[in-house]
Amino acid sequence: MRGFVRQGLRSTGDSTGALDVDGEDKHIKKDLGDAAVKKAVDRINSLKVATHAETATVIGVPQNVYLEYIKEEILTESNFLELPWTIMLVVSFAVLVLGLLQRDTYFALQDAIQNNVRQSATFAWSGHFGHKNFEQVDSIAQFWSWMRLGLLPLMVQPSWTYSEAVNGTLPSQWLFQGYLSPAPVQNDYLRYAKLLGGIRLRQVVAGTGPCTTPSLIDADQFTAWLQKPCVPSNFAGQTPQAPDAEDFAGFSKVEHLFPDLDSFEQLQQQLRDMEDGCNYAHSMGNMSACRCEWCRAQNPRQPWFDERTVRVEVSFVIYNAQYGVYTYVSINFFLNRAGHMHKLMHEISSPSDPFDLPADRLVPILVAGAIWGSLLLSMLVLEIKDVFRTVRTSRLPFFQAVIHDYFGFWNIVDWAAIASGALAGGFWLRMALQAHNVNILLPDVVRGSLESGSDPESRWMYQASVENLLAAVENLIMTTSVGTVTLTLYPIVVMLRLFKSFQAQPRLAIVTATIKTAVPDLMHFSLVIVCVFGCLFVSSILFFGQDLEEFSTPEHAFRSSCLAVLGHWDWGTAKEIGYFRSAIWLWIFCIILSFVALKMVLAIILDAYAYEKEKASDYKTLVHQASEALRRRRQRRRGERVNLRDVFEAFRKEAKGDIKGMMVNRTLITPDSLMNTVPKMPFNQALRTLSHALERQERVEIGHLTEEGQRREMQKNLEDFQQRMEDVCRDVEAVAGELDYFERLQASGDATYDFYFGEEHLSQDKTSKAWIHKMVSEMSGELNSTFSQGLDKYREWQGRIEGEQTELHEAVTEMQSLVQQHTGLVREMTLAVDRLLEPGHTALLANAGDVKAQPSPGFASDKRGVVEFAGRELGSFMALLAKGNPKNVELLFSGKAAHRSWAWEELLEARTCFLTLRCAKQYMGFISERLYRAQDLLKVEEGDGLNPQKASELSKLLYHANHKMLELDRILQGGSPAVALTGKERQAVLQLRLQRPSSLAEARKLVEQAELFRAQLATDLKAAESEQRLPAEVEAEPLLRWLRSVRVRMALGVGPGPSGGAKPLAPLARTRSSEEQEAIKDLIQEISLSEGIQVVVAGYGICSRTLGTSHSKSDHDIKCIFVHPRDAYFGLKSMATTFKRQFAGAAAGDDVEISGWEARHAMQLLAEDNPAVLGLLLSPIIFLGEEWRARLEDMASKLFSRQRLMYHWYNHGRKNFQSYIKSSEEPLRKRYVHVLRRGFLGGVLESENTCLGVADLDQKFVDVGKLTVYWIALAHVIVACSEA
Fold it and tell me: Cβ neighbours of residue 72 under 8 Å, at least 6 residues apart?
């Protein structure tokens, strides 16, 4: 581009990244007359990427695309505007129904009756106590006892009742103030209610039928043996429910007890006559005295209640004048053919006048009713208009147009809401009408109760009025029951209509969208669930059906099984069948359905919800959508926009009503043509709607990509990009060849040269080519230099790689000799350690003084092959600790102790108390001493420069000083010594030790830098002393007390002290999980929350726990791959590609180090066959993301480069050898294992092209014949010694 700039041609990039040329540029204006320049500029402009607005203006938008957008916007806006009205519909219905249906009042009345009958209607009296109640009636005799001794005295109340054992003559009635009759008032019930029409008894009788006769017995003989006919019935096989009590069909043998006409004794006699079938009256010779009408008509005499009876209903109606409520009470006794008598008491209440309410309650109800009715009517009008609009615009006949063009799911929901609302209102009106009918019949019953005498005619008239009233009450009860169900269903239908309105707001439509997305998976999974549930459902009937009522029928078993899935299980009843058998079935059921199937259903729904929630995150909020609707409304009023319905109507008129043809027409529409079609439409609105239509079409075609889809799309784009880059490289190589060729054409007379450059009068086309060639020629030098530099760098890299390979071969050879030398030393050390760990030696060492190895060969000398050790008696060691000696203090913070006694563990718990101001000054003294010696070396060598020996001494002095300065900086900042440096600190300090200064100037520069660091630390030390950030000294008394305790316990052989013993300080322990893996997973979750990332794969990296060399002090090296939130990838800020966190003692006391790569960065490393990423993918222990790990492993195994991987392993081995073995005075033995393993992996890759996991090294290497068992054993001996 520099050639263009020198010519004065300016080019820029627009918002889409396309190249743009400034048409107002003076150079372009000057050269536009030149056809070649004009052609080049037109070519550049043709490559620009157009925006949606430019596309709509220049090219246009297909009519079907635009009308689909308009139709969707109209529907969305309509549904959105319906939302507040739908909410108002729900609220007004709730106020109306809850105000009219006084559920709290009904509950109070019915609960009082239930408690009274169940608890107070008792029989089997002993003195003042009745020992049985309603629930304990199990025979015909007990039924009559309960009726005569329990229910009748409770309902009739012949006299005022007193407490037990009251002596003296007391009045049987009381005339209270304001009462017209003394209490108890006739037909009073529960003090505040009134009994209407007495008590009615009726029953359902089964007819005789065939008996089931065994096949091997004669039927006549079997009948003679039974001696009575069979009366089969399937009624009440199971416990009856409320609907059974509301069945009023099939009754006979109706008898009435009228407390307002008969005395209490007459009512009791009537019950006795019903029980004995008028036998007592017959024995007295006076059948007219029998008060049971049905029994008196039987010949021969029969009791009212016998073995053919299926159901007995004792019913009565209560009217509570306090609330104005009728209550129908039905006490039922069901006799099944197993001989059991089921009891069921059921009450239904209904108001006598629903609108007889106080004004403060009635007015809100009437207002809510008016609003609800108006909204329901408006819904009906709108739907009818929509039907006629659809029929008018359709070319199909009426019914076909309604079915094909009008009806949709949401239209059906609207009509269902209208129909259910109309049904609810109709049932409510019918219930009010039925209550009015009861009110009409009530005066006849009241009049008969007050005026009827003992003559049969008045009694018959009273009984007829009572039967009419009871029939009207039964109709009222049935209407109330059905109306309640209808009213209950209406809010559910309206809820669906709410979801229709929610469709207009994507954030509100997440629920319905989630269901739509999850339906395919749920349908497939439901087939599995139904099959499994069906098998367990059948097994439950077979297993429990004969013992438990809950599983005796398919209906009961289905309900009980569904409850068991949700965790509701009656173990107290089931265990009676058998603990072991019931427990086995329950565990199988819970594991398969509750623990697995139900969780999988939730997982499917949550996965769909996460997908839909991610889609909805990019859409407008409810507030934004409401403000946009308000903005459109204001613009329409100001004439700045046209209603979208008018736009659609304009196109419909243009298509002459053919909506289907209009919606498939692909004619291109531009803003100008749109303004011609739709009058009064502003240009801005036309352009905006066309652009939005293109955006919608693009969004529909692309769809919403899931995370997996995005990865596949990125992978495809990367592959396309790589292919294009290869094409570009080939083109550049071709251009470079052409440039090189033309660079050599410098002599006139050459045919090719003259053809391109020799003629002066050329055509426009050739002039354009000449102009372009001139521009390209000016770029050729830069391109050639770039390619030359790249080739030179590549050659340099190749030479460096060859040198490093040679060096690695030499290092491996040297390492083999070192391994042979160390083998003997390891064997001798192992024997020495075994002797030292014997009891006698241990005791000797515990009481010995300081010990030390032979003198060191010298400061900064080569100590390879030398084993140094030193020891101190505990008392002298504690004295040095109290003085703040850095070497001894750091020993407490070192994590590489090979052996720890209980005394050392106790001392470690109090190690932070030794980080005092005195200790900080000791660090400063050590640093000053090392820097003084370094400056002294510079003075000695000032004239002659540095020789290798002095340079080695200087590097070690700087190494010591910088290491201690870093540790002192941590202490002054409130931290603890790290001892083993990591990261950049470790690299910087090791560089001082390994890269010795080559000149005096370099050495002085390093010393000056160290002096500046020391001066800064001296300032920080003074500040810490003045601010008292560190304690001045160690408290001697606790340490001496602990030291005496340790010596006493060692002498007695007691061992560690009890909890809370003589320890100098109690540390703050980190809370951790009991299991290591759970603790590590918790840490991963903690990092995800704190860093704001999502970890997709996590597991062990290449470490001792995957290499098989872990020991008691090994830490957990966790590697992971993570992603940032989606928005971060589209932001301007750079994102972190790695992180590293350390947790001390977080997993069962072991340290945990967690580091990770960002997903794109990890894929780049994986593309380069990075061993660390491969180590994670091939790790035997994965904590998170097994599915992703398996996919990446499969991809890596197909795409990895054996040559690159060998090169990586070579570099790892070389760096480990140089950094930790060759350049270290006391290399750790496990470093040899690390180097050996890398070399072994290289050998495997030479013989087999496979992506090998480090943990599989030993067996795999033996299999390919590259490693003998001796070498494997040697590697493990080295590891074992490093553990010891």
Answer: 696
Peptide bond into 977 cis (omega under 30): no
Distance of CA 71 to the CA centre of its chain: 36
CB distance 1099 to 1136 below 8 Å: no
CB 1136 within 8 A of CB 1158: yes
What confidence tens digit (pLDDT) does each residue in 222-276 have?
888 988 888 888 776 778 888 888 888 889 999 999 998 888 888 999 999 998 8
Q: What is the pLDDT of residues 272-322, one digit of tens each?
A: 999 888 888 888 888 888 889 899 888 888 899 998 899 999 999 999 988
Quick check: helix, strand or coil at residue 678?
coil
Residue 256's pLDDT is 92
Integer Cα distance of 1279 and 1282 in angstroms: 5
Residue 991 has pLDDT above 50, yes or no: yes
Q: Name the residue with higher pLDDT: 825 or 879.
A: 879
Taken in order 1175, 1178, 1180, 1184, the sign of the CA dihedral is: positive
Quote the CA–CA distance of 958 and 984 in Å, as a whole number.
Answer: 16
What percent of the chain shows pLDDT beyond 70?
76
Q: Which two tokens stand for residue 194?
A: 């009134």
Residue type, 296: R
What are the two backbone dihedrals, phi and then psi, of residue 295, each rounded to the nearest 5 degrees?
-65, -35
Instruction: Return d(Cα 730, Cα 719) in angstroms, integer.
Output: 17
- Alpha-carbon distance of 13 to 948, in angstroms, equals 59
Give the C-alpha separation, 543 to 551, whole Å. Answer: 9
Query: Which of 730, 742, 805, 807 shows the shortest CA–CA distance to 779?
Result: 742
Find the helix packing angle between 902-909 and 1036-1052, rounded to 10°: 160
Average pLDDT, the chain: 76
Query: Within 10 Å of residue 1213's Cβ, how many Cβ atoms?
Result: 23
CA–CA dist 774, 4 (Å, integer): 10
Rounded to two decimals, the pTM is: 0.49
Identify the bridge partners of residue 91 per DSSP, sorted by sequence position: none
Q: Give pLDDT tens digits for 58-102.
A: 888 888 888 888 888 887 777 777 778 888 888 888 888 888 888
Q: Once rounded to an integer, what is the mean pLDDT over residues 182-198?
A: 86
Strands 1116-1123, 1150-1158: pairing is parallel
Radius of gyration of the chain (CA): 49
Q: What are phi and psi of 258, to 5 degrees?
A: -110, 95
Q: How many CB atoms lie within 10 A of CB 721?
A: 10
On the 0-12 / 13-18 / 19+ scale of CB atoms within 10 A, 245 is buried
Give mean pLDDT, residues 501-529: 80
pLDDT tens string 678-707: 888 888 888 888 888 888 887 777 665 566
What tokens were used for 429? 């009106």
Could you tell me whether strands 129-132 and 123-126 are parallel, antiparallel, or unpaired per DSSP bridges?
antiparallel
Distance CA 146, CA 150 (A): 5
* Helices 1229-1247, 1202-1216: inter-axial angle, 10-degree rounding: 160
What is the residue-wise DSSP string for 896-956?
Answer: --S---HHHHHHHHTGGGG--HHHHHHHHHHHHHHHHHHHHHHHHTTTT---HHHHHHHHH
| One-letter identity of residue 1066 | A
Q: Residue 593: which of 531, 549, 523, 645 has the closest Cα?
A: 531
Whole-angstrom Cα distance, residue 422 to residue 363? 22
Beta-bridged to residue 1100, according to DSSP, are 1118
> What DSSP character marks residue 546?
T
Confidence of residue 825 (pLDDT cuts 50, 70, 90): low
Q: Which CA distances in Å does 1160 have to 664, 1093, 1099, 1108?
A: 44, 14, 18, 31
What are the structure tokens assigned to 843, written together? 């005791």
The two structure tokens encoding residue 1070: 């980190």
